[in-house]
Amino acid sequence: MTAAAAPAVQVPGSPRDWNALLARYREPSLTRSFVQLLTTTAVFVGLWWLMLWSIDISYWITLPITIVEGGVTVRLFMFLHDCVHGSFFRSEAANSWIGSVIGILTFTPFRYWRRNHVLHHATVGNLDKRDYNDIHTLTVKEYLAQS
Question: Structural domain boundaries of the chain?
Answer without folding.
Answer: 76-147
